[in-house]
Amino acid sequence: MKKRNIRVVTFTLALTFTFTLLTTSVLKAQSTTIVYPSSKVEIANPERGWYDDYYSYAGGSNMGNIFKPLKTSELLSMRENNNITLILRLFYLHKFLEEDQVSQEYLDWMQADFDSIRAAGVKCVLRFAYSASQKAAVWDATPEKVFSHIESLADVLAANGDVIAGVQAGFIGAWGEWYYTKNFAGQGYVPDATDQENRRTLVEKLLTILPDHVSVQGRTPAIMRNIVGTEDPITEAEAFDGSFKSRTGHHNDCFLANASDYGTYTNLEKDLAYLHETTKYTITGGETCDASNQYSDCVNGVPRMVELHWTYLNRDYNKAVYDKWKEQGCYEEINISMGYRIHLVSATIANGANSGTSMPVSFTFSNLGYAAPTQYKPFHVVLTHAESGAETVLDYEGTFDDIRFWLPGEITAEGSIAIPSDLPDGNYMMALRFADKDAGLSLNPAYSIQLANVESWDIQRGLNMLNHMVSVGTGGEGSLPLGPTSLEGSAVSEIQIDLTWSYEAADETGFEIMRATDDDMIWEKVAELDPGTTSYSDVSLNKGTYYQYMVRSLNTYGSSPWSEILTIHTLGVGIEGVTKPVVEIFPNPLSSGNLTISFADLSEKKIVITDLSGRKIFDTVTSDSQININSEDLQPGVLLVTLIHTDGTSSERILVL
User: Fold this and answer.
1) Which of 218, 305, 457, 487 can pair with 224 through a Cys bridge, CB separation 3.0 to 4.6 Å?
2) Alpha carbon of residue 111 to chain centroid
3) Distance between CA atoms of 467 and 461, rounded to whole angstroms?
4) Using the 8-state DSSP alphabet, how is residue 453 labeled?
5) Of 47, 522, 14, 521, which Cα lies nearest the Cα of 302?
6) 529 forms bridges with which residues in the sheet?
7) Angle, nearest 10°, between helix axes 298-307 and 268-278?
């Protein structure tokens, strides 16, 4: 029996273990259902993840005098080599403490920065401040000066809203963090009624000059409530309605520091309940600042990120916290789960349609991240003519057509696409695109969402390929290859596995084989094979290790769906201690409905679910391929799911409810 360890390295597999989905293509009378495998590979998706911070001036208590412009080459390198798609740009305005306006020269420098951000294919979170140290002689400007400065920023911010992911309230206090201030607070930095009104006015002026899709983030829940003038969080009905309330979010620059995050929370239960609801519909992020206690441990940090729908973190601060996460085993899970991570689970699509008609489509997605996307992106189905390559972009119309409501868990989008009356007959390859809504960015793949699927991303066009072709009218030339079937394997030695499969057609130009291990579930291409091939020997493997394989066929038009996934282990000493993995725990996090646990075999096994104190909540014995558990039979919180095999070995997964 494996030791039970709650800090567990299994936390790495925690919230995202839905990656061994079986892949099949089932041809129905009028439609095809395809199930798509997911991947744990890191994705450079827009408006989420780790950010780098860039200050317009260097210095601490004494600010520098030389403006530090952004460099397109540096931002581009960070995106392409480190998957950094978000930066914090902190504009210091210390030179204008006694001026009524921000100078035109400074505004031109800001515009050049936005041009660099756009050219690099990234976005920014903004903050403005007047000082960079609590020891600075002057922390901020008077309210009148600040209001005037905001008005002078109106044109440049409005013109560049396409690359602004959010704006931290800023302006007040050292670093713009709303604490060390005499102009917006009194004794002990406590604001009186006049100060509160000035703070409210500041944010209202910011919200007024910013585009409607940009939120302003308050440093604490108390600040946020004062801004919007109500104790009530944002509701689903209010979300994205353009009101100031719907555009007021949260940033925390001492995240996971202690019970109150150094004063961020004044009533923990009340504040967290407020933030849990409000952060469903606004961007949330910040930085960590203390690694010295258990509050920043994985077992506490990951559930808090889930609870607050965490979207971004400063990757440079605090690195001691991140080192702890690497040691405890949750760093990689956090890395891929911040913000949204959307897996296309399955699609049911008609095989044919006539021009001028409505074609039904159904998609099941799973958001494996901590938050929904915070920016609207149109949900498009893209048809590409097999012969001419002409691209037709169609609007999806139906349920869940706004991805900003795709909160963590399962999303079933059922609707249709309208086939244009003038669309030429022919066969069309199908894909999904979630491009930026701004016309200037919509054709840049860097601003489109890549789904967390295996080998489906067309990086040149920003398309998520569906491995399906629809025939319009009388159809035409071109078809996708059929998929391989009956993938089987045998362990030849400690380092070799032999694979075989069946292929009945002769329409392929080759085959691709992908492999993953249960430890990381990151798929890698191990072979590209000639047409007619139905076997492959994979060598130089590790002994006593479980591997997973899938194969698909290729031709000049695209690829078939993936085969079913084969799980098999190499021979070797100690293989008895290797446990066959759970195929899927879905959805995870679970908010409501059923939890599905499916298995890689039909052997008898016991499922036990406990809380982190060890109290048993659920147990059963089954030899079925999957079980469904109603969320009402469980309890909210972080739960441990243990699969116990008949030989006494076990495997564990973390579930968040």
Assistant:
1) 218
2) 29
3) 16
4) B
5) 14
6) 511
7) 50
Backbone φ and ψ for 17, nearest 5 degrees, come out as -85, 70
Query: In terms of Cα–Cα distance, which of 183, 265, 260, 177 is closest to 219?
Result: 177
- What is the token pair recorded at 438? 């701004």
Superfamily, domain 485-576: Immunoglobulins (2.60.40.10)
Protein fold of 342-472: Immunoglobulin-like (2.60.40)
- Residue in 347, 361, 470 with CA at minimum distance from that of residue 416: 361
Six token digits for residue 16? 């995202």
Residues 6+ apart with CB under 8 A from 473: 354, 355, 424, 425, 426
What is the Cα–Cα distance from 528 to 554, expressed in whole angstroms?
10
* pLDDT in the model for residue 292: 93
Class of domain 582-656: mainly beta
- Residues 423, 385 contacting (CB under 8 angstroms): no
- Phi then psi for residue 333, to 5 deg, are -65, -40
Q: Give residues with Cβ within 8 angstroms of 572, minimum separation 6.
A: 494, 542, 543, 544, 545
Cite the beta strand spans of 107-259 per DSSP E: 123-129, 164-168, 216-218, 248-255
DSSP code string of 77-90: HHHHHH---EEEEE
What is the model's pTM?
Answer: 0.84
Q: Are 638 and 655 in contact (CB under 8 A)?
A: yes
Helix (H, G, I), strand (E, B) or coil at 565: coil
pLDDT at 472: 97
- Alpha carbons 47 and 342: distance in angstroms, whole number: 14
Show me where the domains of the chain are located.
Answer: 49-337, 342-472, 485-576, 582-656
Cα–Cα–Cα angle for 392, 398, 403, rounded to 5 degrees: 85
Sheet holding 342-350, edge to edge: 25-27, 31-35, 342-350, 358-367, 409-418, 397-398
Q: What are phi and psi of 633, to 5 degrees?
A: -85, -5
Do 577 and 649 meet the contact criterion of CB atoms below 8 Å apart? yes
User: What local confidence, expressed as pLDDT, does residue 511 receive?
Assistant: 97
Residue 59, Cβ density class (10 Å: 0-12 exposed, 13-18 middle, ≥19 buried)? middle
The pair of structure tokens assigned to 368 is: 């494996």
How are beta strands 397-398 and 409-418 bridged, if at all? antiparallel
Two domains, one topology: 342-472 and 582-656: yes
Coil/strand/helix, residue 258: coil
End-to-end CA distance of the chain: 26
- Give the separation between CA 340 and CA 279, rounded to whole angstroms: 13
Cis amide linkage into residue 37, ω under 30° from 0:
no
Q: Which of 54, 43, 47 is nearest to 83 (CA)?
A: 43
d(C-alpha 166, C-alpha 206), whole Å: 11
Strands (DSSP E) contained in 123-246 are 123-129, 164-168, 216-218
Rounded to 10 deg, the angle between the 221-228 and 193-209 helix axes is 80
Token pair recorded at residue 561: 């769906």
- Centre a 10 Å sphere on the Cβ of residue 485 and count the other Cβ atoms it contains: 14
16, containing H or E segment: none
Nearest to 619 by CA among 633, 598, 601: 633
What are the mean pLDDT values of the chain's consecutive 10-residue runs (657 residues total)? 28 29 40 92 97 90 89 98 98 96 98 98 98 94 98 98 98 96 95 97 98 97 96 97 97 96 95 98 96 94 97 96 96 96 96 96 96 98 97 98 96 97 97 97 98 96 97 94 94 95 91 85 93 96 90 95 90 52 66 77 78 72 81 78 68 68
- Please tell me the number of Cα atoms within 13 Å of 217 on its side-chain side: 28
What 8-state DSSP symbol labels residue 13?
G
Q: Residue 619 phi/psi, 5° resolution?
A: -155, 150
CATH number for the domain formed by residue range(s) 49-337: 3.20.20
